[in-house]
Specification:
The chain is of the alpha/beta class. The protein has four domains: 3-280, Aldolase class I (TIM Barrel), CATH 3.20.20; 297-325, no CATH class; 327-386; 393-503, Double Stranded RNA Binding Domain (2-Layer Sandwich), CATH 3.30.160. Helix content is 40%, strand content 20%. It has helices at residues 27-40, 54-66, 80-90, 107-114, 118-133, 151-164, 180-193, 213-223, 244-253, 269-280, 301-309, 337-346, 353-369, 375-387, 430-442, 486-505; strands spanning 8-11, 44-48, 71-77, 97-104, 139-144, 168-173, 201-206, 227-230, 329-331, 373-374, 393-401, 409-416, 419-426, 447-455, 464-472, 475-483. Strands 1-2-3-4-5-6-7-8 form an eight-stranded parallel barrel, surrounded by seven helices. Strands 11-12-13 form a three-stranded antiparallel beta sheet. Helix 7 (180-193) links the parallel strand 6 and strand 7 (201-206). Helix 1 runs parallel beside helix 2, helix 7 (180-193) runs parallel beside helix 8 (213-223) and helix 10 (269-280) packs across helix 14. The two termini are 39 Å apart. The model has no long low-confidence stretch (mean pLDDT 92). The protein binds 3-methyl-2-oxobutanoic acid and zinc ion. 3-methyl-2-oxobutanoic acid binds next to strand 5 and strand 6.
């Protein structure tokens, strides 16, 4: 296959994806995702919007210092201060450090948001690209709201920024408005009308407001785009962004009519999706393509029969191709360290020896209570013990009494800033009493928006996975916790959420684009 058929995958989970409600991540969480994206072999990681907050700057800098193979991009508006700040953060990646600058080009954005005319926008775009080129040749320019931009003007902007030195030019569908045939024509138009178009890679960036982000990205590839901007699980503002796993697997599965290739190691897709859900608390819907819980489940008898006789009757790709191992029954109380480590490694986790030992101790405790330990249990252990490790607030122990004649009472002991604190509180029910006790100890005024609990696997000895959504001062977070006792799982989820609120309070709020 010619090099022209190579599609670069630009992952913006840590930048545009993070703009999804409740998806904000701290520096360590972003670094963990970046390592996973490197395993997945994305070409570019957009690590943040460095001018937006100290946390974004720090995360982008650390990722640029740590990740060794992917290019690392930072986003900036088309002004000197933003551009300089991006370079300060991404310069550690050397030639792999990318400055991604943007300005809006549609009439509605120019008139109401920028209050600038065409001449001013072109001048600013060119000036921004030239300033970025003073630092690096790895410069990307985005024409924000390109899809609603008059085509001759869009072509003029694209030609001018390529002339100024942009190596990659992105044509975003910022508001998720286009449809495949229209987007195809926009990309084709630029390919045909922009004289210097061959000096840059054309990129596409689709939002999913009409559910067409993946279809639009595929149409753009067919028209000549060679970079796709996307996010894991399709997370992002509003209806989200183009989903990485969907666009990559479409190219893989339909390679017969889409003869393009990415560099993605597809067997890491499932682990990456799970990791992001664990870190953000945002679960994918069960019927989500590729990574949803039902994506490979065949319920109808006729389908099950067909798949048993010959997989390709109803399966267009194998679960193994995305790293989903369907061997559900894994370990039990007699499994040793070796088997445990093998299983954890095969699930795609990269644990230090210390973390592996912590997880093993927790596994043994669970195996004493639960006969069969499934992959989902292991995911929950890693999430609870390693990824969501307690920060300021920690549950030490708790006891709850409830029933049909006694007032539900929760006694909760927590460690807060290395000090032990204990309280007993009566509530309307056991969960209410527990949450009231935690609030009292943590002095939390956060508003509970949502609480739910699910069994992680089948059976009455299954672990419960609780999810709590809290809001305070306009910030929303999701907390999760797992335990065979559902009230303990709920307490852990509540404490996880207040820890997240606490760490978000220490960052600054982002300005809007
Ligand atoms: O949607 C959009 O237009 C963006 C740009 C900043 C690339 O995210
Ligand atoms: Zn976007």
């Amino acid at each position: 296959m010619s090099t022209d058929n190579r599609i670069r995958i630009f992952d913006t989970t840590l930048r545009d994806g993070e703009q999804a409600p409740s998806a904000s991540m701290n520096v360590d969480e972003k670094l963990r995702i970046a390592h996973q994206l490197e395993k997945l072999k994305v070409d570019v990681i957009e690590a943040g919007f460095p001018i937006a907050s100290d946390g974004d700057f720090e995360a982008t800098r650390k990722i640029a210092q740590t990740i060794k193979h992917c290019e690392i991009a930072g986003l900036c508006r088309a002004n000197a201060k933003d551009i300089d700040r991006v370079w300060e953060a991404v310069k550690y990646a050397g030639e792999r450090g990318r400055i991604h600058t943007f300005i809006a080009t549609s009439d509605v954005h120019m008139k109401y948001k920028l209050q600038m005319d065409e001449e001013q926008v072109v001048a600013k775009a060119v000036e921004a690209v030239k300033r970025a080129r003073g630092y690096t040749a790895n410069v990307e320019f985005s024409a924000e709201d390109a899809v609603r931009t008059r085509l001759p003007f869009l072509a003029r902007v694209v030609e001018a920024v390529i002339e100024a030195g942009a190596a990659i030019v992105n044509i975003p569908d910022t508001v998720g408005y286009t449809i495949p045939s229209e987007y195809f024509n926009i990309i084709r138009y630029l390919k045909e009308k922009v004289a210097n178009i061959d000096q840059a890679i054309l990129s596409v960036h689709c939002h999913n407001d009409l559910g067409l982000a993946v279809a639009n990205s595929l149409a753009a590839i067919e028209a000549g785009a060679r970079q796709v901007e996307c996010t894991i699980n399709g997370i992002g503002e509003r209806a989200g962004n183009c989903s990485l796993e969907e666009v990559v697997m479409s190219l893989n599965v339909r390679n017969d009519i889409l003869p393009y290739r990415t560099n993605i190691e597809t067997t890491h897709i499932y682990a990456t999706s799970r990791l992001l859900s664990t870190i953000t608390g945002i679960m994918v819907q069960p019927n989500k393509a590729i990574v949803g819980a039902n994506a490979f489940a065949h319920e109808a008898g006729i389908h099950q029969h067909g798949v048993m006789m010959e997989k390709s009757t109803y399966e267009i790709m194998t679960p193994e191709s995305i790293g989903l191992n369907q061997n559900k029954l894994v370990l039990g109380k007699h499994s040793g360290r070796h088997a445990f480590k093998q299983r954890i490694d095969s699930l795609g986790y990269d644990l230090s020896a210390e973390d592996m030992e912590k997880a093993f101790v927790r596994f043994k405790a669970l195996a004493d209570k639960k006969k069969q330990i499934f992959d989902e249990d292991l995911d929950a252990i890693i999430a609870d013990e390693i990824i969501r490790a307690p920060e300021k607030y920690k549950l030490v122990q708790m006891n709850v009494s409830s029933g049909s004649f006694a007032a539900p009472t929760a006694t909760v002991e927590m460690e807060i800033d290395d000090k032990l604190k204990k309280v007993a509180v009566i509530g309307e029910g056991p969960v209410d009493a527990t949450f009231k006790a935690i609030r009292k100890l943590a002095k939390s005024k956060a508003r509970l928006l949502q609480f739910s609990i699910d069994a992680i696997t089948g059976g009455t000895d299954a672990q419960g996975e609780a999810t709590v959504r809290l809001e305070e001062d306009g910030r929303e977070v999701i907390g999760q916790g797992a335990h065979p006792d559902i009230i303990v799982a709920s307490a852990k989820a509540f404490i996880n959420a207040i820890n997240r609120l606490y760490s978000r309070h220490n960052g600054t709020k982002k300005p809007s684009l």
